[in-house]
Write a structure and sequence with these properties.
Blueprint: H1 2-16, H2 24-34, H3 51-64, H4 73-85, H5 91-104, H6 106-119, H7 125-128, E1 132-136, E2 143-147, H8 156-164, E3 197-201, E4 204-210, E5 220-224, H9 234-246, E6 251-253, E7 270-274, H10 279-282, E8 285-289, E9 298-302, E10 308-313, H11 316-331, E11 343-344, E12 347-348, E13 350-359, E14 362-371, H12 399-402, E15 405-408, H13 411-424, H14 439-445, H15 457-476, H16 483-495
Parallel strand pairs: 2-15
Antiparallel strand pairs: 1-2, 3-4, 4-5, 5-7, 6-7, 6-13, 8-9, 9-10, 10-14, 11-12, 13-14
Length: about 500
């Protein structure tokens, strides 16, 4: 009965701290209005259902009674976000609580805000739990592999409706401040239950929030209060360190600022970080060197499939100065023998993916050298996953993958399950329209596993996916990890 669901949702709000007990009646009335009801009978029963189940029942009711016209996942997400907003504290309340806790300890403040972002269903716990996660051993240490199932794929009706929707430039993108409280539309997610913490970065207003898809623990996004493009420069390094000073338990990094090697939203200046130890963080120095004028800074090449220079010092200003020097050198660096070109036909190719953290009382900055040159043979990028790996990973290698966390497409969950069965049954993979793209890969690894079975098949496929991701990262490295590649890397280091 819908009245039971309303009571359960109000109880959920009170028990999680989203809704004060004093607002029980007020919140109930808001929910009645959302559902098109003008009467209410409070039930006497109790229930401990999951939030997702309560909201699902209320969405069913809304569709069956004409409150929402479409029953697709996009329409349901828009509506259940509207319901959750009835429980939410106003932005100023959230900001005041965060700031009071921050005055005590920055970790207390982020703990509070992360919990609120989940309790509000902005981060949908029920979907995050469906993500598949495992680790894969490699010569560079263990890599983290995930198949992301928390980001819903749009249903055909939603795609059609989005195509017919009136064009809108508000908010300008999904990272703009104007998303807070926005009801959403068929081509833009609802954010009524979303809250943003204003912070100051390098003297300017920025926003602090969590990713709704949390690819890792406390996956945060720190973004410019103005809709301005990303740029890797001196100020970018300063911003990274300014944030880490304020939140020393978080790492923070930036996507590169060029297409192919950059992130999906280059139009809005932002960083990503969180309370998570990435595989790259655990990687050790492969070799150390010194840069003239910076002998006091610990500097070296990291044992990593991409080309990474790590610098460490107690003084952030020293690291910023050295990072500026390395970036300037790399922006203009050309080595034709290594197929590194600073520019072609006036188009720049060299940039950096930086990652900043505090570790053992010192600041640490990883500078990943990137290059986005393309050729006729590699139209998606020379330093991009090669064609033979696209059956697993075709998308650009951004900040999160650079640090050793694979975010693989949801299609792989079904494909890998079907692939295991097909291998066991000895079927011709090339005759299967969906699995044919995996045929060459299977023929390559299967001879190593003569005892492939239902019991060990999943583990074997996961292990081999890990090897593919290792090769993906190696493809993205501008200087390869073999003897010749390290000679080329050494040549760049000598130029500093």
């Amino acid at each position: 009965m819908i009245f039971d669901a309303i009571k359960e949702l109000v109880e959920y709000g009170i028990s999680t701290g989203l809704t004060p007990e004093e607002e029980r009646i007020y919140t109930t009335n808001l929910l009645l209005e959302c559902l098109g009801l003008d009467d209410y009978e409070e039930s006497t029963g109790t229930s401990e259902r999951e939030l997702a189940d309560i909201l699902s029942e209320m969405c069913d009711y809304a569709y069956e009674n004409g409150v929402i016209e479409d029953n697709g996942i996009t329409s349901r997400d828009l509506f259940d976000t509207k319901l959750m907003n009835c429980l939410m504290p106003r932005p100023k309340q959230v900001i005041d609580t965060f700031n009071a806790l921050f005055a005590e300890d920055s970790r207390k403040a982020t703990d509070y805000f992360y919990k609120l972002s989940q309790d509000s269903n902005y981060i949908r716990r029920d979907r995050i739990r469906k993500d598949m996660k495992w680790t894969a051993p490699t010569p560079y240490g263990e890599l983290d592999i995930t198949i992301n199932l928390s980001k819903p794929e749009k249903d055909p009706k939603a795609i059609a409706a989005a195509g017919k929707a009136k064009a809108s430039s508000y908010p300008k993108c999904q990272l703009c401040m104007e998303n807070e409280g926005y009801a959403g539309r068929m081509n833009h997610p609802a954010r009524e239950n979303h809250r943003i913490i204003p912070i100051t970065v390098l003297g300017k207003k920025w926003g602090f929030q969590y990713s709704p898809y949390v690819y890792y623990n406390e996956h945060c996004i720190v973004f410019n209060g103005e809709h301005t493009p990303m740029k890797i420069d001196h100020d970018a390094f300063c911003k990274l360190f300014d944030f880490v000073r304020q939140f020393p338990h978080y790492c923070l990094g930036s996507n590169a600022d060029l297409p192919i090697v950059g992130g999906s939203i280059l139009s809005h200046d932002h960083f990503q970080g969180g309370n998570y130890e990435f595989p790259m963080t655990r990687a050790e120095y492969e070799s150390k060197f010194t840069v003239s004028g910076f002998e006091d800074v610990e500097t070296g090449i990291v044992n990593w499939p991409l080309s990474v220079i790590r610098i460490r010092h107690e003084n952030a200003e020293r690291l910023i100065a050295l990072a500026d020097h390395i970036l300037d050198a790399w922006r203009g660096y050309t080595d034709e023998e290594a197929f590194i070109f600073a520019e072609t036909d006036g188009e720049p190719h060299n940039t950096i993916t930086p990652i900043c953290r505090m570790r053992d009382g010192k600041f640490e900055l990883d500078l990943t050298l990137r290059n986005n040159i393309t050729t006729e043979e590699c139209p998606l990028g020379v330093y991009h996953p090669h064609d033979e790996l696209h059956h697993i990973k075709k998308e650009n290698i951004g900040l999160i993958e650079v640090m050793g966390l694979a975010i693989l497409p949801a299609r792989l969950k079904t494909e890998m399950a079907d692939l295991k069965v097909a291998i066991i049954e000895g079927r011709d993979l090339r005759a299967d329209e969906v699995l044919a793209k995996h045929a060459d890969w299977v023929e390559e690894f299967l001879p190593e596993y003569p005892e492939f079975s239902n019991e060990n098949g999943d583990a074997i496929i996961e292990k081999e996916i890990g090897k593919v991701f290792q090769r993906v990262l190696e493809d993205a490295g501008v200087f390869k990890t073999d003897e010749e590649g390290r000679k080329f890397f050494g040549r760049f280091v000598e130029s500093l």
